[in-house]
Amino acid sequence: MLNTTETSTIETSTIRIWDLPTRLFHWLLVFAFILAWLSQGDDRYLDIHVFSGYLFLGLLLFRLIWGIVGSHYARFSHFAFGWAKVWHYLKTLFTQQHSRKARIHFFGHNPAGSWAVFLILGLSLIVSLTGLLTLGGEEQHGLFAGVINFALGNTFHWWHNIIAWLMLCFIGIHILGVLIESRLHHENLVKAMITGFKVTNTSFKATSTSFNVPRHGLIAAALLLTVIAGTLNYFKGYFQQEQPYLPFVGPDLPDNASWREACGECHLAYHPTLLPARSWQRMLTEQHDHFEEDLDLDEETVTKLHHFAIKNAAESMLTEAAWKINHSTPLEQSPLRITKTSYWIEQHQNIDNNIWQHPDVNFQGNCGACHLDAERGTFEDAAMHLPF
Ligand code: HEC
Ligand code: HEC
Fold it and tell me: Which ligand is nearest to the CA of 357?
């Protein structure tokens, strides 16, 4: 409906420019971006970070489709302006008189804003993709698990960071643009993205009521429901009793009954991925003097254990920890303690002394006190918790 009001000198009309799905997309994307930013950097929140990434990617896919089939102003074709128009717009933005009467008015995105939108959408896609590639390479999770190695994952991680910062810059420019245009053109663009309506002068009144885009409430509801269902599905592991740390459950690591029996008696049966092959070799050779204990294993058992340990040692790079332990342990060293490897020390150096003295922890090798998945050997970020 065209709603016309008389003011003292000019008439204004209120027109729905942004349909509901476009607005919902916009603010959910803002939410996902903030969440991603808050949860980055600390591996213990990686599950939240990855969630925000999936939300981000899902929203983008929706927007790509909506940019083709959506309502008038949401379509990419509507705001695909050439350079010349952008230049003209920017030039006239500050030179022209912007009285209420003579304002230039862009119903949808203005030419400069449209480029910001395309750049942000493009960077969003790249940041999501590099995120997925990092997740596949560094954590062996998600779509690219097992496809990309750790080193490549690291490279993508670097790009992921750079592009995220670049995005932040463009978002800054976008916000600045919104504020400038809102001021110069006497219109509240933020409010327009919330309510969907823009106030415009009446020269368009004659054209017709078809300026109002449809609300598309059903599609917005479907979008919202999909997001809610996806969120619940992603975090469902937290509602389960026996494994309160999903959603990161990778494939099971190779297991061995003899290993569990012989090495799980006095402490956790440390998974072979946690030390290089030469360490296990040395440990089994020196089995009669195992940290002042005599393991007293017969030859057949030693052979079995040896075979399992060598095959799945850190060099196998089955997990992130394996990869990092393998790469950070100098070849001339064969550490017998996981807790003496430089990677382990680096990972745990910030943990408070009184946590190590907590009765539930006792000693550094008691990995299970803080890693819910220590038995499985996966040492997932999301399965870490400090006993307090
Ligand atoms: C009879 C008890 C006993 C058995 C059986 C045993 N260990 Fe140990 N293990 C110990 C003790 C004691 C320590 C030292 C604990 C400490 O001081 O932190 C230790 C420490 C370790 C450590 C170093 C943990 C760290 O601090 O990083 C590794 C690795 C290890 N054992 C592997 C094995 C393997 C592999 C087997 C099976 C072949 C095995 N252990 C069987 C008693 C045992
Ligand atoms: C007192 C609690 C505690 C104990 C005991 C402990 N860890 Fe940790 N571990 C942590 C915390 C907390 C982090 C996260 C550090 C960070 O991300 O800043 C961590 C990080 C790690 C990581 C890195 C995970 C990743 O992907 O970033 C590995 C691997 C790991 N620990 C292995 C072990 C092993 C193996 C043991 C036993 C030998 C062990 N930890 C014992 C608390 C503990």
Answer: 2
